[in-house]
Write a structure and sequence with these properties.
Blueprint: E1 5-7, E2 20-24, H1 30-48, H2 54-63, E3 74-81, E4 84-95, E5 98-106, H3 115-129, E6 134-139, H4 144-152, E7 156-158, E8 169-174
Parallel strand pairs: 1-2, 5-6
Antiparallel strand pairs: 2-3, 3-4, 4-5, 6-8, 7-8
Helix pairs in contact: 1-2
Length: 176
């Protein structure tokens, strides 16, 4: 993990400037909702090779709800850099030993600041707290930054474990 990143719970002191603070929070908070919308705008825009409309984002949020990213079998995390919400990610159990990452996002202006590493570490810790022994994810070929992030942090490509409509690459990392 980046030495400038910290992972804390809401009960700890305010982070120092220049640090990432990643905490679990409901996916329905204003910050979480804004980040999920930004995530959808980016992934849909890249897929369609154009800017997406607010109506398309609204529809995407309806088509891909986040209800399974809440306790007891899921988590949603928001990362803040100097108090500004700039990253998010979700985790859900797909079986008792396997957690799946989804909606992993770092705002473009905050990339290469340690936010992705801090977010992944916190998501992996959340997976361990749910009893998961491994974490998996799927992603698309055009999301090259995400694929590079996963590879840098010990995720290895595996055969397809799902048939998601946008899944082109599948990754796994042991948590034990």
């Amino acid at each position: 993990m980046d030495t400038n990143a910290i992972i804390t719970s809401p009960s700890t002191t305010t982070p120092m400037p220049g640090t990432w603070h990643v905490v679990q929070e409901p996916f329905t908070t204003p910050d979480a909702t804004n980040l999920r919308r930004a995530y959808y705008a980016e992934v849909a825009g890249r897929y369609w090779e154009r800017a997406v409309t607010e109506a398309e984002i609204d529809q995407g949020m309806l088509d891909f709800p986040a209800d399974d990213l809440a306790p007891p079998a899921g988590r949603f995390l928001v990362g803040r850099l100097d108090g500004v919400p700039l990253s998010c990610g979700g985790l859900r159990l797909i079986d008792p030993a396997t957690a799946e990452l989804t909606r992993v996002y770092v705002a473009p202006r905050a990339r290469r600041t340690g936010g992705g590493a801090a977010l992944l570490a916190a998501l992996e810790d959340a997976g361990r707290s749910l009893g998961a022994e491994r974490v998996r994810l799927d992603t698309r070929s055009d999301l090259v930054e995400a694929r590079a992030l996963y590879a840098r942090h010990g995720y290895r490509e595996i055969p397809a474990y799902n048939s998601g409509p946008y899944a082109e690459h599948w990754f796994e990392k042991p948590l034990t």
